[in-house]
Q: What sequence folds into this?
């Protein structure tokens, strides 16, 4: 389940940025399967009992279950499952996807709520080391953001009218002919170089659109880095507490 | 109120750096309106009752109110509201603004005291999440500083006698003919690239004046970054305390 | 003992990366001596009494000692001591070392377990300052990682078929003819420039393989830097506690 | 007193790096005066009463004072005051200063012990804000290190036999003819760019000597940055404690 969500969150930005001009049969089938899985999950939720927060009793009444789900996350869950692209194709007969379609597709990130819930439950589970669960959570968030930023940055270059005046075009003049792999790694490389504040400068903003994107990305990273360091400090303090207490007790 | 202060603190460095050679009718009228608003505010303060810190009683006596205000912030409030530029124009008849005028205009930053008070009050308000109030405060400070640094850095290039030997001139030879938007985004891009310590190096100091400016800016940033991380650590420790206590209690 | 482990962990990546095409007599003899020493250490462990964790008694029974050692680290200790390279040479008669040999050689890093134990014991020892022991530990870890990353990065350039399209080849065209010292310092310089997130950009990734390596290295560094800062914060809090308590007590 | 120490610590690296080939009359006289002042201070220490740590009584006995001083810091104080350069000049008659002279001159940094004592006393003084005293201390340390690193880095370029293959020579070919001011600012600019991990890359290592110097400088900075952030976190936690307690008490 969590893996499917991760797949869906990882593959969507990639598709939008890199595959918009490709015939993408195999990935499209995989996507449809994942969407189908989430649709089944929505249906199943109507039949799964839940524990009431106030009475601490298991509620089996299907009406109450339905009422609870419909009044909370049902709408968002459905919205994030509808294959808007397929509908668009059916109604208009055109394969070209528009901006509104992209925005509706971003509803899929709603599914990440489940991953968040999963990690929160794991953190409270005494069987797992808090240190490693927290680390895994932070690494997942970082990797997802790096991936999204890389895809978006590539999309900016793809959409820019003048090929040569883009970050990748100024380095590899005919980059649209190079393999998908090289382009993806370059975008990811830039993304991580900026995220970790190394900033080699071999891939930097060339036009104003890219500058604006980087400004927001860097501001966001400043917060993320501070958050990561804050978490690590917290974990280190917890981790060395036992040794400190042992020393102070002597 | 807070928004007006933010506007006034944001627009002033921008005007000085980018608009010094433009006819700036619309912005000038907006500025005058804001100044008028603050003047009204000063007058109003004389009629607003306050709570005495020692007796915890509401003081309505207008004399006492006036005495208290005059002895505390009145002078600075007035100084930050006087439109020195208009006076200068009236007395000398010249539209060109001198350095002393700029320095007097910097008194407007005094108004930021109100934003600080606003945030301090919000932090103590139990209805708002401490985490988000603190984050908003830190982000505001960061954004304002980034904006000011960008404007100052552009001003340095503008004032330098030799156009080609400036940070922007070495990249865009005829930068003074490009649009205001490109120049502002470039300055902001440099400012954030340096602030977040990414430092791509595509826009770097060229002459000695810029080097000196960057030296001070970076030293200042070192402190600011440490302060941001310190705050974030504090917030993370607070945020995860409940989960930690839950784990330790088992 | 600890020094020998450090030597062995330091020299192995260096050998693999820089000396694969050299006749390396003197280092080979030193390596064999160190391996011999560790083999002796394994034998000695069978005759050294240990303190039982549950009864707190010294166990002198050689059978019990052997049982305990065989069931815990014996296998790994032996595996990390076997000179696979020599065996390979004996069986095949070829001096060229293959990838599988390199991977088996990496078992030597298992010896670092002892250094970890050594530092953990030191941290609990009240005679030494916790601050300096912890600093020494963190510095050792950092230096070892910087060294390994530098060697690996050089190895990537060495293995790449097209000499000119490597990080070092794009700077020094005929780098394979330059002295070992210059190449090692260059690799180390790149490694530390990236680790500390300075990122001058004079030595950056050129081909896709290097980009992938840097992506992982930077992600890893992000965690390491956060860990270092977390530890430092912890130490500073401990260090200034006495002064703080003195101030608060007044 | 503290100011004189600061002057002496600031001026010494500057002299060694930048003025070794200049006739330096005025600075030499100032140095001599400062040295004279410290010599007087040593003599005075023999007549200043001290408080005994065990009995908490003021000791006025001049014999005891002398004994205490002679057995503690007297030797180092004297060593850091002797004008080795002048002696060298007297004995050999040559104005050229050798490496051993430089090393002996470094004893002047011993005087910084007094500044450390001064700040430690200030931190314990309840009349001053702990936050600002600590900040001032950290800023002083940072500035001194940045200055020393800049001077050393310039010295490396100065001593390198091939002018063009130095960090400054690859940017300004005939740098030895440019003004002292430009060279000093360039060195300081590089030093702070590296220290704050911005690393624009416009001034980077060119030869192996510089690489080695930067490797050590960056490793040292990693520790310093972590230390600064650790201190800041500590201060922020202290600073926001009152607000947090107020919120938790409601
Ligand atoms: K950087
Ligand atoms: K950089």
A:
């Amino acid at each position: 389940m969590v893996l499917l969500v991760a797949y869906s969150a990882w593959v969507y930005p990639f598709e939008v940025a890199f595959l918009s001009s490709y015939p993408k049969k195999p990935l499209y089938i995989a996507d449809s399967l994942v969407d189908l899985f989430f649709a089944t999950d929505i249906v199943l939720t109507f039949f799964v009992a839940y524990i009431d927060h106030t009475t601490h009793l298991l509620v089996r009444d299907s009406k109450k279950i339905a009422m609870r789900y419909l009044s909370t996350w049902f709408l968002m869950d459905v919205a994030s499952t509808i294959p808007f692209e397929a509908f668009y194709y059916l109604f208009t007969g055109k394969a070209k996807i528009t901006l509104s379609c992209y925005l509706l597709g971003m509803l899929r990130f709603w599914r990440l709520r489940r991953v968040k819930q999963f990690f929160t439950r794991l953190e409270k589970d005494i069987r797992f080391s808090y240190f490693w669960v927290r680390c895994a959570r932070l690494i997942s968030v970082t990797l997802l953001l790096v991936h999204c930023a890389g895809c978006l940055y590539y999309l900016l270059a793809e959409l820019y009218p003048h090929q040569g005046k883009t970050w990748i075009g100024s380095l590899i003049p005919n980059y649209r002919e190079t393999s998908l792999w090289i382009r993806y790694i370059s975008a990811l490389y830039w993304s991580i170089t900026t995220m970790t504040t190394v900033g080699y400068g071999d891939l930097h903003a060339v036009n104003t659109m890219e500058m604006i994107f980087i400004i927001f990305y860097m501001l966001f990273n400043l917060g993320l880095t501070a958050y990561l360091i804050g978490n690590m400090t917290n974990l280190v303090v917890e981790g060395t507490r036992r040794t400190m207490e042992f020393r102070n007790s002597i």
The mean pLDDT of chain D is 80. The two ends of chain D are 49 Å apart (CA to CA).
